[in-house]
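In this supplementary section we document a worked example of the pipeline. Step one takes a protein sequence of length 212 as its only input; no multiple sequence alignment statistics are reported here. Step two produces a three-dimensional model, which step three serialises into structure tokens for compact storage. The input and output of this example are shown verbatim.
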Amino acid sequence: MIRKASILGMSLLLAGAVTATAQEKKAPSPPGSAATVVNATFSAPDKDGERRVTGGKWIEVTYSRPILRGRTNIFGKGADYGKAVNGGAPVWRAGANQTTKLTTEVPLMIGNKELAPGSYDVFVELKEAAWTLILSTQPTQDKYDPNDKARIWGSYGYDPKFDVVRVPMTMMTPAVSIDQFTIGFADMTNAGGKLAMAWEKTAAVVPFAVGK
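The serialised model returned by step three reads:
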């Protein structure tokens, strides 16, 4: 378990692609993304070791990546577990700022539920040692407008009636402390893989399969 957790922690640190803004002063929770491609054809390496990609379909998560900034025990414990990162919302937005989104160009099977290609909100129900991944179709705001009651910002105003997936995640303890919240893909093949999340000393993964 320790070895698996260590590999997960390192892979998330290295594979969590950050889309950094071109500003001199970065946002406190910079925007980022994690992406993977399935059903692609890769050429043989050229003289520089590069491979050309032909075809393929993308699965991508876009989110904002909060940093610990010296904080410890970020998720809390006991009755207060998750309250700080939820910020008063009923579930966690799996990041910061606007709602985290998963966009897929292929059908996915997650928790025995088939998802059509499209874009889905990503939330996490936080319970100590028991996270639940939630994918939702609730309308969301791209820019915060307190007067917009029809769409949500982050996870404020979350309504479970829009849920399309609720699936338990497998919890892990990274061997290192993850300073910036990271989402990544692990153990990927054309048949599927795992969606992984990690922050500080907590990580969680959930398997998914690629549909036809």
